[in-house]
């Protein structure tokens, strides 16, 4: 029915004109879709100790962070026995076992060359007796290595290095993160730099890997991107994190001086490192229990 009032007819025509204008708005004028959620890696090393409540505190942090949990070795103190996995790791970090991808440490290797470690984590730990493996997460390649070089050959022409080289060369991933227990670079006083893992770092650097995660020293330390020789390289360097803060005690830094290119350090709090993995970048955040004042977070681009 046509409105009789001239004013009503004008209002109707104006409304029809507005509808027509809205209908032809270009797509660019519409709201942009939300950015894809990143994949999350979160974890630490040097974890389960029946003599410390630090692992209980860090497990509570994991409770509120979704994603894939990593460990950086020395999962069950002090000798990686089956009993220690059940009594010192299982009660807290064990509740995240179904989403955990572990790395082996020297304390885990003390019993039967890591037998209880492989039995506890099962297929998630890689082939028994080797401990190196890789998986894909959100378009990233994740590489896990075994740095117990007194038992496993870490030389550049050994089986593990050959596997690493082939894995890196065959991957289509733009971004890669690698992890193992013993750090090549450290400012720690208790455990120094371990040059035996340099072949790993060299291969990763040569293939444009972004991040390396280590434990062994019971503190948190972040380095600027470096070459395998410890030279600053902002364009191609690998950024190393030491995250030995999972709960098995804390130890500090060398009185002889801080390592070159060390950018952040803390030995006063337990915590976990959260990595958010985007298509061509990543962010990091060191997450600590309530009451801690230390913070470290940032962003990096893939090579």
UniProtKB/TrEMBL annotation:
Residues 1-31 form the signal peptide. It comes from the Bacteria. Pfam families: Metallophos. Transmembrane segments: none annotated. The keyword Metal-binding does not apply. Residues 45-220 form the Calcineurin-like phosphoesterase domain. InterPro entries: Calcineurin-like_PHP, Metallo-depent_PP-like, PAPs-like, TAT_signal. The keyword Signal applies. One of its GO terms (molecular function) is acid phosphatase activity. Keywords: Signal. This is Calcineurin-like phosphoesterase domain-containing protein. It comes from Catellatospora methionotrophica.
């Amino acid at each position: 029915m046509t409105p009789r009032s001239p004013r009503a007819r004008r209002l109707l025509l104006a409304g029809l004109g507005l509808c027509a204008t809205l209908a032809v708005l270009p797509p660019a004028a519409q709201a942009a879709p939300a950015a894809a959620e990143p994949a999350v890696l979160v974890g630490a090393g040097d974890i389960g100790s029946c003599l410390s409540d630090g692992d209980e505190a860090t497990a509570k942090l994991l409770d509120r962070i979704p994603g894939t949990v990593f460990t950086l070795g020395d999962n069950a103190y002090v000798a990686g026995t089956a009993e220690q996995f059940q009594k010192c790791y299982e009660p807290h970090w064990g509740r995240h076992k179904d989403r955990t991808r572990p790395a082996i440490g020297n304390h885990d290797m003390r019993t039967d060359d890591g037998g209880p470690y492989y039995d506890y984590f099962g297929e998630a730990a890689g082939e028994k007796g080797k401990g190196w493996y890789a998986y894909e997460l959100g378009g990233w390649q994740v590489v896990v290595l075994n740095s117990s070089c007194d038992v496993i050959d870490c030389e550049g022409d050994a089986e593990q290095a050959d596997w690493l080289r082939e894995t890196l060369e065959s991957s289509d991933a733009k971004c890669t993160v690698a992890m193992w227990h013993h750090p090549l670079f450290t400012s720690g006083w208790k455990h120094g730099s371990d040059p035996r893992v340099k072949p790993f770092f060299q291969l990763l650097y040569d293939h444009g890997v972004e991040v390396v995660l280590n434990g062994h020293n019971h503190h948190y330390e972040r380095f600027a991107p470096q070459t395998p020789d410890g030279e600053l390289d902002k364009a191609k360097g690998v950024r190393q994190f030491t995250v030995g803060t999972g709960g098995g005690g804390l130890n500090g830094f060398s009185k002889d001086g801080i390592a070159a290119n060390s950018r952040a350090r803390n030995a006063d709090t337990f915590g976990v490192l959260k990595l958010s993995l985007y298509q061509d970048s990543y962010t990091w955040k060191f997450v600590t229990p309530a009451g801690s004042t230390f913070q470290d977070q940032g962003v990096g681009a893939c090579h």
